[in-house]
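Need residues for this backbone.
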């Protein structure tokens, strides 16, 4: 059984990013056929961030894969400090509202709880992005405040401990 069949999040390598940017897919996967996972400029930005963070902390980026199909991406988007990793994620528009992001972030939390380097996960959502807020809530993230981001405007700040277990009813 391959990792694609066992896991929903699969580590993205520099080679995988390069393949995605060229329109190819990593082994044993396929792209969503009816929408893009991420526009090229976002893929380029994520590849750059993953390379920078990956020099100090790995893994730093994952594909969100469901039934062999790459439905989204998730990554550490800031260099980890004091055991805190800050994550970002997204799924193809045609795969939104199907629980893919909720399940993927749940799996990411499971990974974090097994990694002794990680004590805390943080994320931010736009105030209007109710779907993303629900993803975090279902996975036990707690709203910790708001801030003004120079690019995104008002965002809600979230955190989840890597030391706590999330109740099973919150997932899915």
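Answer:
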């Amino acid at each position: 059984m391959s990792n694609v069949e066992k896991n929903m999040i699969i580590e993205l390598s520099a080679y995988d990013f390069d393949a995605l940017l060229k329109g190819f897919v990593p082994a044993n996967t396929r792209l969503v056929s009816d929408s893009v996972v991420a526009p090229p400029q976002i893929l380029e930005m994520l590849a750059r961030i993953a390379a920078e963070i990956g020099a100090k902390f790995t893994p730093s980026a994952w594909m969100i894969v469901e039934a062999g199909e790459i439905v989204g991406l998730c990554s550490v988007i800031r260099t980890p400090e004091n055991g805190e990793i800050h994550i970002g994620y997204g799924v193809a528009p045609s795969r939104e509202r199907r629980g893919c992001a909720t399940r993927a972030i749940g799996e990411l939390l499971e990974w974090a709880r097994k990694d002794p380097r990680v004590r805390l996960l943080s994320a931010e959502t736009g105030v209007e992005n109710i779907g993303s807020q629900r993803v975090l809530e279902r996975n036990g993230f707690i709203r910790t405040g708001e801030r003004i981001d120079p690019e995104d405007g008002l965002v809600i700040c979230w955190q989840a401990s890597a030391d706590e277990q999330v109740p099973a009813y919150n997932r899915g």
